[in-house]
């Protein structure tokens, strides 16, 4: 009899976005003349940079002719892209990352979800709260948690991100083996300072732990004091894997390209305590279960690093950050405590009330946000507002919120 | 301490293609004037169909403008593609497959590799020999095998595909829970008849087992008696998942699009013997760890089903099948028993000698094939020749082999 992975039974159905969709559709039926402004889901809204469009067209033309056609490429990505990433995203910031430590993939969701396969099932995992749900769900599927009790999974060390700690949790007092961190954070928009990240790296080195560092929103950092990469922190090459994506940087949410950096200095241990190179393990996993990213898409990603690409991406990001500033200052003016929005496209607003209740108040004004409770227990009382929309829509949304709340 | 998934230590390093590469490069150094003809790796060589190129360009233009830009799409694939697949690949052959049973992905390698995550680790798995290595490797990683002893993994039920059984193994006498089948087969090129597949479906229904049916080479079937889909077999909707790919059909090896069919009738059982819908489980996995295929690529895949696309794909396949016929008849003329090459791009040649020795004899003539032993113990003595090349190269390769072997 074909038996299931019973850990799947522990998963909570995620009703967050379907609940939102239902409430929005009910509102629209009752208010057909108020067009909704969506500042909920973290999806970009502007067209791809011109440099990427040109690269895509050129690569598609190459695919049309036998002479220039590309079949299977290297599973890890083409050298032209891996080299551009290593040089521009890391070496230019003084991070000693080599091209062959970069693994190109079709998404940070896949990579952050798949990476846990390399680990034993009985390690201790620390996961922030609130958090992007993929870290937790994939560890539940793998059997690294117990049951769901009192709103939390047994066996997980939750890292509470609260107003009190500035939404950057301190290292735990106990020893954990695997730590998920995400800065600039989704959903809070908070960033971690050099000193805070150094504490985490030191903790990981001391405990022979590994940090999975999700830097998908790195491009939104404007403050020169905030590190863009965990590899700006001394010692990180030994204890940290970094996930990056072109989704939010260059608007690739519907184009699909990302990458993961696995330094050759990272070690992982077998049951006898013998060290193995994490890089070799991930390479084996990647080559066995993945067949590379489409050639035209890799060419488009590489175009992000051209001078035109860099200028166009900067313009996109600047536009979204201007929206974020508008949202942040409007919400502050209305008396709400906010974090994020300065080095992040997300603004995490303390609504001083039930998340869903606050969501409903904004919806009445025709504005969709995301209730913080959907991201974890510590998200209760908050909402996430996303800057991914046109400036006109954002200005109009803030005007609507102002009217409804004052 | 971060501990590894120790099952990775059981994996054998795959030296097959790197060994081939080394021998080829040594030959080239010694014979700089003999250009190598590659009939080894199963990668297509012709440009993408014109209909796909046009669809790609059009979709890229859509991605350039805010108004037509596409961000995150449905993880399972756009309805336009799922509907085209259900209608053209299944309903047109009398298979009752609905669009929402089709999950679009970036490759059959990913899907065939990832699907085993849904199962308990202590189920009994049957895997053919010789075989595409992904089925076995991903089950090793998940801990469903013991150690490697006498050339085989403990705990796996190997399905020997030999000349004696026409390279279609009979159902095992014992009960197994999960069965991998691949027809037209990689590497042998053999096909399974309706009666043979019916036996497998009946076996699976009797044992509450599940068949993972890899039909990546379906497009090469010319014989009207051979089923294209497992769903042409009565009862298969209850016990079979089917993997398909645009890689070999439309030359998408470097473009990346595939799909998996999970009928809603397929059940899987928990430890109490309670039935759960496999469709819901795969949907949860797919949405948690995957973020959909790039919009332009899905448009290109959908173009395969347009009248022009169908004609262009047929021309590509016919060309490769003409090559296959040339190879098959040349090898038969030289006195070798062959299978495949009629409904498959692969010809499996009984070299009547050590696989690598035969490989070396062909390499001396400047032709690269794949030694059968690389696909499993039953592949010893065989080589796989691929029809993926230009007709001129295939004719020249056969001429060289003829000269060297006679």
Automatic annotation (TrEMBL), chains A, B:
Domain annotation Aminotransferase class I/classII large: ranges: 35-401
Catalytic activity field: (2S,6S)-2,6-diaminopimelate + 2-oxoglutarate = (S)-2,3,4,5-tetrahydrodipicolinate + L-glutamate + H2O + H(+)
Coiled-coil spans in chain: none
Pfam families: Aminotran_1_2
Cofactor(s) annotated in UniProt: pyridoxal 5'-phosphate
Transferase recorded as keyword: yes
Leading EC class: transferase
Key word Transmembrane helix present: no
CDD domains according to UniProt: AAT_like
Pathway: Amino-acid biosynthesis; L-lysine biosynthesis via DAP pathway; LL-2,6-diaminopimelate from (S)-tetrahydrodipicolinate (aminotransferase route): step 1/1
GO molecular function annotations of the record: L,L-diaminopimelate aminotransferase activity; pyridoxal phosphate binding
One GO term (biological process): lysine biosynthetic process via diaminopimelate
EC numbers, comma separated: 2.6.1.83
Keywords: Aminotransferase, Pyridoxal phosphate, Transferase
Domain of life: Bacteria
Name the UniProt record assigns to this protein: LL-diaminopimelate aminotransferase
Natural source organism: Desulfobotulus alkaliphilus
């Amino acid at each position: 009899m074909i038996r299931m992975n019973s850990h799947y039974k522990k998963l909570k159905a995620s009703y967050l976005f379907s609940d939102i969709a239902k409430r929005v559709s009910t509102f629209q039926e009752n208010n057909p003349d108020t067009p909704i402004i969506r500042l909920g889901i973290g999806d970009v809204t502007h067209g791809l940079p011109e440099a990427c469009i040109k690269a895509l067209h050129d690569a598609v033309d190459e695919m049309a002719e036998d002479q220039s056609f590309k079949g299977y490429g290297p599973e890890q990505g083409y050298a032209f892209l891996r080299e551009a990433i290593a040089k521009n995203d890391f070496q230019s910031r003084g991070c000693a990352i080599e091209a062959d430590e970069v693994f190109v993939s079709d998404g940070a969701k896949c990579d952050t979800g798949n990476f846990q396969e390399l680990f034993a099932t009985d390690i201790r995992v620390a996961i922030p709260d609130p958090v992007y749900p993929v870290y937790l769900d994939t560890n539940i599927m793998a059997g690294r948690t117990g049951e769901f009790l009192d709103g939390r999974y047994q066996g997980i060390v939750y890292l509470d991100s609260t107003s009190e700690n500035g939404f950057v949790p301190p290292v735990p007092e106990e020893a954990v083996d695997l730590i998920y961190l995400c800065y600039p954070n989704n959903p809070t928009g908070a960033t971690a300072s050099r000193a805070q990240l150094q504490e985490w790296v030191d903790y990981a080195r001391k405990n022979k732990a590994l940090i999975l560092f999700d830097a998908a929103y790195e491009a939104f950092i404007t403050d020169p004091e905030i590190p863009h990469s965990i590899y700006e922190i001394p010692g990180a090459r030994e204890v940290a894997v970094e996930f990056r994506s072109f989704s939010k940087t260059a608007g690739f949410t519907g184009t699909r390209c990302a990458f993961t950096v696995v330094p050759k200095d990272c070690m992982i241990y077998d049951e006898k305590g013998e060290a193995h190179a994490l890089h070799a393990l991930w390479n084996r996993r990647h080559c066995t279960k993945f067949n590379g990213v489409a050639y035209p898409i890799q060419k488009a990603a590489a175009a992000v690093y051209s001078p035109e690409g860099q200028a166009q991406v900067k313009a996109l990001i600047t536009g979204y950050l201007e929206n974020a500033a508008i949202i942040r200052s409007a919400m502050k003016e209305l008396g709400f405590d906010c974090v994020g929005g300065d080095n992040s496209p997300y603004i995490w607003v303390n609504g001083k009330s039930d998340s869903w209740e606050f969501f409903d108040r904004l919806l009445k004004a025709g504005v969709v946000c995301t209730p913080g409770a959907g991201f974890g227990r510590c998200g209760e009382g908050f909402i996430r507002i996303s800057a991914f929309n046109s400036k006109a829509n954002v200005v109009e949304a803030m005007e609507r919120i102002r009217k409804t709340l004052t």
